[in-house]
Design a protein that fits this description.
Radius of gyration: 19 Å
Mean pLDDT: 88
Strand content: under 5%
Number of helices: 8
Low-confidence stretches: 1-6
Largest sheet: none
Structural class: mainly alpha
Distance between the termini: 57 Å
Helix content: 55-70%
Length: 249
């Protein structure tokens, strides 16, 4: 059974495409910082806001598109295949484990233990319990985000619970996205479908986007956000390492 939606909302692809380019720029600057070619504080001011904006776009739109896919099947009067969503989550977690291994090989002390792909995989699995709540997911997501400052103050001897947001010792790691607060944003994306795309039709006209320069390119990148995410950093980091190791010297 094909459980994919019959309608693709290109404004979401466009938004993700913009986020992809901003992410590549941010990671390029991080790499240049790492090798000592520039000195920019990426964790405050403008660059921090830019990074958070990119992360917010990806997490929100992932929750939104999951809900779009789910509701498209419901509107056809068909049964939603939970197995297909679980298999998608397993794929994300598989990629996440590869990134953990690579971070261990490359950075050692800065191990990525629960990065954005780990978070996405777990969130897709958890959201299977929340999708039937429909628009109420927005309120639940807001509640999770509002209570996250309290959750992060909790300490326990179980370090494995750091993925929830307690024992927040990984907050300075290269890539750390605990469920509190980020799963709240994910659920807001899930619930926003019922406000932004009721009856599977957008409440906003996006035709003006088509007139923007490079619109097709942005959408192309947005449709392929996961492959671009997976390959861009190894390519950037590898090229700078090759330059620093073999050319500059």
């Amino acid at each position: 059974m094909n459980n994919k939606p019959t309608i693709r909302f290109h404004e979401i692809d466009f938004l993700r495409g913009v986020a992809i380019i901003l992410m590549v720029i941010f990671h390029l600057l991080w790499d240049l910082n790492f090798f000592g070619y520039i000195q920019i504080d990426l964790w405050s001011g403008f660059w921090l806001v830019l990074g958070r904006m990119v992360q917010t776009i990806f997490i929100f739109t992932t929750g939104l598109t999951l809900s779009i896919s789910y509701q498209a099947v419901v509107h056809k009067g068909k049964t939603v295949s939970l197995l297909s969503r679980a298999s998608h989550a397993a794929k994300l977690l598989g990629f996440a484990l590869v990134i953990t291994l690579l971070s261990w090989l490359m950075f050692q002390g800065d191990l990525i233990v629960f990065g954005i792909l780990h978070f996405m995989g777990v969130s897709v699995l958890l959201s299977l319990l929340f999708l039937p709540l429909q628009r109420w997911n927005v309120l639940l997501g807001i509640f999770i985000m509002m209570t996250s400052p309290w959750v992060t103050t909790i300490t326990t001897d179980l370090e494995l619970l750091s993925f929830v947001g307690v024992n927040n010792m990984h907050s300075t790691a290269l890539d750390y996205f605990p469920l509190f607060p980020w799963f709240g944003l994910f659920l807001i994306g899930v619930g926003s479908y019922f406000y932004l795309y009721p009856k599977h039709v957008s409440v906003i006209s996006w035709t003006w986007l088509h007139r923007l320069p490079g619109y097709a390119t942005w959408c192309f990148l947005g449709k392929r956000s996961l492959p671009v995410y997976l390959v861009h950093q190894p390519i950037l980091f590898g090229l700078i390492w090759l330059y620093a190791t073999f050319i500059q010297r």
